[in-house]
Design a protein that fits this description.
The chain is an alpha/beta fold and 276 residues long. The chain has two domains: 169 residues, D-Maltodextrin-Binding Protein, domain 2 (3-Layer(aba) Sandwich); 93 residues, D-Maltodextrin-Binding Protein, domain 2 (3-Layer(aba) Sandwich), CATH 3.40.190.10. It is built from eleven helices and 13 strands. Strands 1, 4, 5, 6, 7, 8, 9, 10, 11, 12 and 13 form an eleven-stranded mixed beta sheet that branches. Strands 2-3 form a two-stranded antiparallel ribbon. The N and C termini lie far apart (41 Å).
Length: 276
Amino acid sequence: MSQTTSVLALTLTLGIAVALGGAHLAYAQQAADPRVADLVRAGKVRVGVGVVAPHWAVKDAATGELRGLAIDLARAFAVRLGLELVPVAYPSPPSILEGLKSDAWDVGFLAIDPSRAAVVDFSHPYLQIDTTYLVPGGSSIRTVSDADQSGVRIAVTRKSVEEIVLRRMLKRAEVRAVETISAGLELVRAGSADALAAPRPALLQSLARLPDSRVLEDRFHAAFAAMAVPKGLTARLAYINEFIDNAKASGAVQRAIERAGLRGVHMVPIDNAGAR
């Protein structure tokens, strides 16, 4: 099969990935790259992703398929490699780390935090994500600082970057750890929590599930999304960094953000090293 024919075939099967770039690279070129030779030998790339919100992934109610910014990038990465994409879904981004124990994935999508650096290595960041609170409509909490008061109970996903940050930051409010964002929303609905802390895109998505709730305008943290590999796989990480930089420089990440209709996020410039 000619290179042109190969590219056309990939375009037909993975249109989103083509939009993100990388489909123009021939399989033979990737097979020759020793940095990803183990993935090529396996014939597939397993990608760990949290199914929680469109900046990571959500499940299409009609088809059951995963979609979202991380899925778009994962498809593009698989196309660049010339490999089958195998999404490995988790109920929250922090639970992706549990997959390390069983070697369940080759690449994961996570928010960068120093506490995770003992088990994974992060790529260059590609997305800045505001994190804030969702509160009931009648709440007196109007700003992030209003929430740090005695008697205020804040629900947050266990082991998430949001929980890590809140436990460092809060002086008076109580942190209530839950397994998923949905579980935290139910605490707010039941009156067992006064606020839900999460990334802004996830909170905006949750508004429809809790009538009269609102999302605060300010933020308590800005997280940075990246691809991650099991600790010590420096060659694979270098390859991924090239992929991320190309996706940002070509405008592909920004187009994916716009296609997903994401709010409360920004693409990280290609020369931004501070987030790492």
